[in-house]
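# nightly structure sweep
# worker-07 picked up a monomer target from the shared queue
# config: single-sequence mode, recycle default, output format = structure tokens
# input follows
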Amino acid sequence: MIHLAVPEAGAFSLRSYLADEGLALSARMRVVPYETFLVAPVLETGTWVFAAIDHLQPAGVELVAAACDALAARDGRCRVLNDPRRVLLRPALLNVMHHEGINRFRAFTRAQLSEPGVGDGLRYPVFIREANRHTGNLGPLLRDDAELHTALVSLRLRGHRMEDLLIVEFCDTADEQGVYRKYSAFRVGDAILPRYLNFSTHWMIKHNTRLYDLERADEELAYLYDNPHEAWLRRVFDVAGIEYGRIDYGLLGDVPQLWEINTNPTIGRVGPPRRRPPDVEAYRSRIAPGGFRGLHGPFRRRHSDRRPWRPVARAADPGLRSAGRSAVQHAHVSGRRGLAHLHGRRIPARLTRTTAGCTKRRNVRTSR
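# output follows
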């Protein structure tokens, strides 16, 4: 059995995947909200994938770490992906990437910039983003100290905590036509899976700024088929201590530059099917033969275990367990919107634990 631990508010993508593209795997993969996991007295054997590590509070990290130790003691019956003690979150990861000579740019927290000598020679322009969220930039590129100070004051007045912000040196990866590329790839255990290649004339590439044309579709297809940066991707994932997640990166000339790694990436639809413009439909039709073929293959081949599960008791501090439900820092975006498209559809049966410690199968229907 494969168990994916994730905050309840961030589980909509995984549930959507298991109800659609990953339906073939739904009998052997289940979503376990951290709110349930952190207070459970026993765990099932199998492969445990800990997602959204950046949403855990310190008490949650401690509980998950204790669970990892209990699972590791099961003589090969369990495998853990993303032990939180090894995972580097974005601030630490970007610092390590620059220190190792992988990235040409730096990133600083507000506190680091206040330390003598740390922020010396800050290379402008810079931009501000949330340190452990995937919300993109919080404003335009900033050209000097005065603009940075003004932007930080403005963000504080808007309710942002200074300790939650990251100041990042801008790395200009545009080609001669002013087009930026964002490469994305998954790691699932030992497998590296190219996910997509996005194009935009805006430096922060999001869905609504993407370019769609058939010439670029061919370039994306080549990326999906050839997996040209596999060795570099494996090295970066290893440095980050991440066995499950999606990496976003660009190319500065021919040198890859890491933007971030998301340990709770979107793998299923997050809304109902939409009518797309003709150019988008043509683009998607062109890349369909090499499109993402789903995560169920790598999961099934490498991590599934058909043997009956056995309970794994864990010796966690009862005081920590009692605080488990508050040990998850929820994402800003509610999962309700993402789950809305599942209304009235039956999610495939999955295993749940009864109070007696046995398992039973149940069907879950979403409600309004």
